[in-house]
Amino acid sequence: MSILQPSKKVGNTYQNPIPTIQTEGGFLPILWKYITAKEERVPKIPIGPFPVDVNDYNTTSSTGLRITWMGHSSLLIEIDGRSFLTDPVIGRASFLQSVGPKRFFPYPIALHQLPKLDGIILSHDHYDHLDVLAIKQLINNPAPIFCSLGVGAILEKWGVSPDRITETDWTQTVSVAVDCTITALPARHFSGRGITNRNQTLWSSFAIKGSKHNIYFGADSGWHPGFKEIGEQYGPFDLTMLEVGASNPSWPDIHMGPDKATDAHLALNGKLMMPIHWGTFNLALHAWREPVQTTIKHSEEKGIKLFLPKPGIVTEVAEYNSKWWI
User: Total structural domains in the chain?
Assistant: First the structure.
């Protein structure tokens, strides 16, 4: 059965493309691991800041595809003359700004300094992807917002005009311009901003196709066989942006980690892979550098070319390792 179908609901909750367990073994064993773990989950020596030189946005991309990594899953993507911002989070990844995971380094650009955007893409409603502080600072930005089903109501509650919001279901394609489309695609994850509203909004990945380039923003997802279908129907991809951090053996269904992420890149028929969702927040038990180190190891074993820019640097997309974390 094909995974490339619109989303399905049981009652008021969305379903994953294949059966999924959010956390194996229960909460208490995980809590004990958090208490006893010795890994350097937060940099001992502060990193950053990594400020963007906004003058770089006055230049034209030489390749037609360049990216500014803002950390975690937030990117400013410039593709064939169009610009998109994904999942901006400037505050803590938490329901309160006084507690919870905070960024290892400040968001590299003040949101009012962003170049003209053709769209803001919001993959799902988790706190490390959907940030009320960022959205409220973007209230007066005229860029349209493309989000998963149900997320629009949250944005409207925060003051975003409904005229700016386009909710997308899996396999739904939206034309941003004559030469640019965004397609929402399945992911294997979950949603909810509290314990009482799990999976009442949708989570998605996205294919972004310009006049010359075709790229895949994976957001959050565990491994699923639909990656191959996505690659066959919507690929090949000049760049895949795939999560490698916040993984753990206790939640393999909802976060891939480096090994499965590199497998996903190959299944997607990707030419170049950019590891995302790492190096910004303490969200798991691994050391903060471990995801990128392990991704490099797997990429060498599997013959995968990586794009690893330094945060805040406007970077042409090509095989590149900035080694900024060393």
Answer: 1
Determine, yes or no, domain membership for 179: yes
Q: Which residues contact 3 (CB under 8 A, 6 or more apart)?
A: 17, 18, 186, 224, 225, 226, 229
Kindly provide the b/e burial profile for residues 33-58, where b requires at least 16 CB atoms within 10 angstroms of the residue's own CB.
eeeeeeeebebeeebbebbbeeeebe
- pLDDT for 27: 67
In a domain, 13, yes or no: no
| Distance from C-alpha of 164 to C-alpha of 176, rounded to nearest angstrom | 12
Q: Whose CA is closest to 160, among 131, 138, 176? A: 138
Hey, is 152 helix, strand or coil?
A: helix
Tens-place pLDDT, residues 80-120: 999 999 999 999 999 999 899 999 999 999 999 999 999 99
pLDDT tens-place string over residues 12-48:
999 999 999 988 766 667 776 777 778 999 999 999 9
Contact 133, 91 (CB under 8 A): yes
What is the residue range of 101's domain? 52-321
Distances in whole angstroms, Cα of residue 150 to Cα of each of 20, 122, 290: 21, 11, 34
> How many alpha carbons fall within 13 Å on the CB side of residue 255?
21
Q: Is residue 121 part of a domain?
A: yes
The dihedral region occupied by 11, where left means phi > 0, alpha psi between -120 and 50, and beta the remainder, is: left
108, 52 Cβ separation under 8 angstroms:
yes
107 domain residue, yes or no: yes
* CB contact at 8 A, 281 and 103: yes
Q: Is the pTM of this model over 0.85?
A: yes
CATH at 59: 3.60.15.10
Residues 159 and 316: their CA atoms lie apart, in Å, by 35
Count the neighbouring beta carbons within 10 Å of the beta carbon of residue 137.
17
**66: helix, coil or strand?**
strand
Instruction: Report which secondary-structure segment, H or E, holds 296.
Output: helix 290-302
8 Å CB contact between 276 and 206: no
